[in-house]
Give the backbone structure.
Amino acid sequence: MPAELKNTAGPVRQGKEGRKPFRLPGVAIYDLPLIRDMRGSLSFAEYGRLLPFIPKRYFVVFDVPSRDTRGEHAHRTLHQFLVCVKGSCSVIVDDGKHKEEILLDSPRRGIHVPPMVWCTQYKYSPDAVLLVLASDVYDSDDYIRDYGIFLEAIKNRER
């Protein structure tokens, strides 16, 4: 590190990180840690502390026209953790009885979407980059892409 950039004060941690229960059962909002110093900012999550599962896959969604929607499905067994690492997008989570919307507009905010929650992302800003961590590898059989079938599956689980 060049002498003129030496950080003598050490990194600054900001905010109160942690899990915040959400209005839908199983869904949680996470305020992720932020470390800032003269070299920039860093936000992170670790399994067992702030990440509710061990990821086996990730994907990145970007260059989405603001009028388009993504997601619009549920998973039978897969967990997802979404963080908009740049820009913003809105996420709608739906358990078949209630729908809630959250704005992801910071790399410090994540949302855990458990299995059997319908999830839609939309209102992407032009610069939005959405990082999605998944609890398992891709399996097309795990997807429920029809909302009517999703509602029926929820109803059958409650019996």
In short: The longest strand covers residues 80-86. The chain has one domain: 27-158. Residues 147-158 form the longest helix (12 residues).
